[in-house]
Design goal:
The protein contains 12 helices and 10 strands. A hairpin with a 2-residue loop joins strand 1 and strand 2. The protein is globular and about 55 Å long.
Length: 363
């Protein structure tokens, strides 16, 4: 389990103090309001963005970026939810993988979770606080999986690990106090991509079917054609330069990116896939392809609950200090969806607040 360095605690206290400032003071520090594509950037998001822009920049390097991701996660973790945590091992495609079990107590459902980070960065510690919160709030058990990362292990290593780990956990469901039919899958960003591809692959190969898929700002079209990748290419946490770097690390240069096993949006059909909860952010270059996938699932008869957090940027679930209520809302949405996994597709499950139903996704 992660320990929080003193420097991270000091930085977290400073960030917490900034976020508690009166709105007018935060506005003076953050600068004029930012509008793009009909949305206003959240004030706290803008303030944090201004702070991170002031930090020194260097050429992207996987090892350095991994250290930075762990440091930033420790700063934004907030108060850790009270769940039992145990480090375990699960099967991967090429050998055992580190994993972490989160147990809130009585629960009949398990969520297998894959962290984000462009398939290059991220680990059990970067997403520890998020997993604790979701397990505690949704009252579900979770197993976070530390799959192999690029560039040391390019595509399809992470996908193969995700599938192998899910099948292993489903086969061992009794060890975790659930039945195989009550094992769901989820992930954020690159982890959302792995969860989406996993659902398609297990359907095609006849493996155990996840109960549900939780997809948090997932990249689903790795051809890069989504309009939001251009609209938000610069200035909002995840940039075109970042995406290009992650792609170079993860994807072999001659790979056909239209293959459904690479870009799940290009599947011939998504009919029969598990119910989905799809989360997007208004100022995220991956927004449109995540929403396009939700629309595609719904058109093929898959029940979908969709939620766009209009003023937020990519990666917001990793900062509980600023966006803790949003993480709680996602956990509540997940719990509601898990309570009725067999319900019929609802064209507007959020009672008129569903952005997919009211805004065009660009596809």
């Amino acid at each position: 389990m992660p320990s929080v360095p003193a420097t991270a605690r000091t930085a977290a206290a400073a960030v917490r103090g900034l976020l508690r400032l009166p709105p007018r003071v935060k506005r003076a520090l953050a600068g004029p309001a930012v509008y793009r594509d009909g949305n206003e950037l959240d004030l706290d998001a803008q303030l944090l963005l201004r702070i991170t822009r002031a930090l020194p920049k260097s050429a992207p390097d996987p090892v350095r970026l991994r250290r930075q991701a762990r440091r930033m996660a420790a700063i934004g973790a907030g108060r850790r939810a009270p769940v039992r945590v145990e480090d375990i091992t699960v099967a991967g495609a090429a050998g055992p993988l580190r994993a972490r079990l989160y147990d809130p107590g009585a629960a009949d459902t398990l969520l297998v979770y894959f962290h984000g980070g462009g398939w290059v960065i991220g680990d059990l510690d970067t997403h520890d606080a998020f997993c604790r919160t979701v397990a505690h709030t949704a009252r579900i058990r979770m197993v976070a999986v530390d799959y192999r990362l690029a560039p040391e292990h390019p595509y399809p290593a992470a996908v193969d690990d995700a599938v192998a780990a899910f099948c292993d956990i489903a086969a061992r469901a009794g060890e975790f106090g659930v039945t195989a039919e009550r094992v769901a899958v989820g992930g954020d960003s690159a982890g959302g991509h792995l969860a989406a591809v996993l659902c398609q692959r297990t359907r095609h190969q006849g493996g155990p079917a996840p109960l549900l898929q939780l997809l948090i700002y997932p990249p689903t079209d790795l051809t890069g054609k989504a309009q939001s990748r251009t609209t938000f290419a610069e200035g909002f946490a995840l940039t075109r330069t970042d995406i290009d770097f992650f792609d170079r690390c993860f994807l072999p240069p001659d790979l056909d990116r239209t293959r459904p096993d690479v870009s799940p949006l290009y599947a011939e059909t998504t009919a029969g896939l598990p119910r989905a909860v799809v989360i997007t952010a208004g100022f995220d270059p991956l927004r449109d392809e995540g929403e396009a996938y939700a629309t595609r699932l719904r058109a093929d008869g898959v029940p979908v609950t969709a939620r766009r957090f209009d003023g937020y940027m990519h990666g917001f679930v990793n900062n509980a200090l600023a966006f803790g209520p949003a993480v709680g809302e996602i956990a509540a949405m997940l719990a509601d969806a898990l309570a009725a996994p067999g319900s019929s597709a609802d064209p507007d499950p959020d009672g008129g607040r569903n952005p997919i139903a009211t805004r065009p996704s660009g596809f």
